[in-house]
Design goal:
- By secondary structure, this protein is mostly helical.
- The chain has helices at 3-8, 12-25, 31-42, 48-60, 65-88, 100-126, 130-154, 161-186, 191-215, 229-232, 238-245, 249-261, 266-279, 281-299, 307-321, and strands spanning 93-94, 97-98.
């Protein structure tokens, strides 16, 4: 049994039931759309977001019909954002599969994203799940703001850690926070419990993104060596921000020139990587990642002990120790 299978064990039956309900929620009478929906389902990942929803609901109280609605809503809206992201990023591959825009072009991909968004809204509205819809809709708003904030700030490659934390909180952490908050809300949890679950999810999401930042420098990845992909794409990460903010002015200007103008030159990119590795940026990022992970675990002291709570604690550890 894998670590993830062990983590899923307390909600294994519910997750299996969710899969069939989720497939049903994506059906369409338009043959082209139905074909694309089948393709999306076939390439689904580890379904981490529904897992957070179900474990949070079970930890707080019990899984209900509302929990299935919450998981479907989140997965539909999340999938919609991924389809749109691939168009925006001109990305032709996701999880080893061709993206929707690669196979069916941008116009169809945008419409598919719109369809998924509308299906998510209808799943919530048809079941009168207004509180859960509010939680998730706010998360999608924050994600859009985070993407735009990143675009705004990345132009001059000049921002401090707090701005970066705002960006990754909105882009990544807010959706995991919504999963946990919606899960607890679906189980009948009160406002205090919902807020603690949201803060837990936020901390996990922050730790998750910082782990991703480390992968670009070979830390914890399966290949064990730097890829420099984020540098080539001019994406700022915490190790890079730390290195730039602690560099001498001449070094900082040189690094920024490379990232802006020579980001496709492997030798130059490696020069940046080596500077970051020597700067202490990796150690700083690891320390911050552990702070968020420890904070996440501390949030769970507000909830009753049980298998679901144990699994969420293990999920935090899985987040920071996973191999890409």
């Amino acid at each position: 049994m894998s670590i993830l299978d062990k983590i899923k064990a307390p909600v294994e039956a519910e997750m299996a039931g969710f899969e069939s309900k989720f497939r049903e929620s994506m059906k369409s009478r338009v043959s082209l759309l139905d074909k694309i929906m089948h393709y999306i389902i076939k390439r689904k990942g580890k379904q981490m977001r529904p897992l957070f929803v179900f474990l949070s609901a079970k930890m707080a109280n019990q899984i209900t019909d509302s929990t299935y609605t919450a998981a479907s809503l989140i997965e539909l809206l999340h999938t919609a954002t991924l389809v749109h992201d691939d168009v925006v990023d001109v990305s032709y591959e996701r999880r080893g599969f061709f993206s929707i825009n690669a196979l069916w072009k941008n116009k169809i991909a945008v419409l598919v994203g719109d369809y998924l968004l509308s299906r998510g809204l209808l799943v919530a509205l048809n079941n009168d799940e207004f509180a859960i819809l509010k939680i998730v809709a706010n998360a999608v708003k924050e994600m859009s703001e985070g993407e735009l904030l990143q675009m705004e700030k990345t132009r001059n490659l000049n921002f401090d850690e707090n701005i970066y934390y705002d960006i990754i909180r909105q882009k990544t952490a807010t959706l995991i926070a919504a999963c946990c908050a919606a899960g607890v809300a679906s189980s009948g949890g009160d406002e205090k419990m919902i807020e603690e679950a949201r803060l837990f999810g936020n901390d996990v999401g922050m730790a998750f993104q910082l782990k991703d930042d480390l992968f670009d420098f070979g830390e914890g990845s399966k290949i064990g060596k730097p890829t420099g992909i984020d540098i080539k794409e001019k994406k700022m990460t915490l190790p890079m921000i730390y290195a730039l903010n602690n560099a001498a002015k001449s070094d900082r200007n040189r690094l920024i020139r490379i990232i802006k103008n020579h980001n496709e030159n492997s030798q130059k990119v490696n020069e940046v990587i080596q500077y970051v590795l020597k700067s202490g940026g990796i150690e700083h990022t690891k320390a911050k990642m552990m702070e968020f992970a420890d904070s996440a675990k501390a949030r769970l002291t507000h909830f009753p002990d049980g298998q679901a709570k144990d699994s969420l604690i293990e999920l935090v550890d899985y987040t920071i120790h996973r191999k890409k």
